[in-house]
Amino acid sequence: MQQDPTAITVGAVITLALFGLIAFIVHRTQNAPAGRPALVLTAAATVLAALPAILFALYGG
Predict the structure, then answer these.
(1) What is the DSSP string of 21-36?
(2) CA separation for the pair 38, 44 (Å, rounded)
(3) pTM of the prediction?
(4) How far apart are CA 7 and CA 60, in angstroms?
(5) Could you tell me the residue range of the domain that residue 36 belongs to?
(6) How much is the pLDDT for 1?
(7) For residue 42, how many C-alpha atoms fall within 13 Å in the half-sphere facing its CB?
(8) What is the pLDDT of residue 61?
(9) Distance (Å, rounded) from C-alpha 59 to C-alpha 25?
(10) Is the pLDDT assigned to residue 53 strictly greater than 80?
(11) Of 57, 60, 47, whose CA–CA distance to 17 is shortest?
(12) What count of other Cβ atoms lies within 10 Å of the Cβ of residue 46?
């Protein structure tokens, strides 16, 4: 089954945007006065856990 190149590009952009969001979350939490590493790990894991479902829906699975 061949995928539409536009859909593949959109999937790549969404993936990069989510990793950018994780980088932003980590950066903002490191600069916070009270470091909360568990909160950062939970937020990053939640975003990463949602990625397969988003891509599955995008590709019409």
Answers:
(1) HHHHHHHHHHTSSS--
(2) 10
(3) 0.67
(4) 10
(5) 5-58
(6) 57
(7) 4
(8) 67
(9) 27
(10) yes
(11) 47
(12) 11
- For the chain, give the mean pLDDT: 81
Q: What's the token pair of residue 15?
A: 């993936």
Structure token pair of residue 30:
């490191």
Task: Determine whether 10 is exposed, middle or buried from the number of CB atoms within 10 Å of its CB (0-12, 13-18, 19+).
Answer: middle
pLDDT digits (tens, 9 = 90+) for 34-45: 667 777 778 788
The pLDDT of 35-56, averaged and rounded, is: 81
Query: Could you give the CA distance from residue 28 to residue 48 in angstroms, rounded to a whole number?
Result: 18
Could you tell me the two tokens for 11? 């999937």
**Which tokens hold the place of 1?**
């089954």
Q: How many domains does the chain have?
A: 1
Residues with Cβ within 8 Å of residue 47, at least 6 apart in sequence: 18, 21, 22, 25
Question: What's the pLDDT at 38?
Answer: 76
Do the beta carbons of residue 17 and residue 51 sit within 8 Å?
no
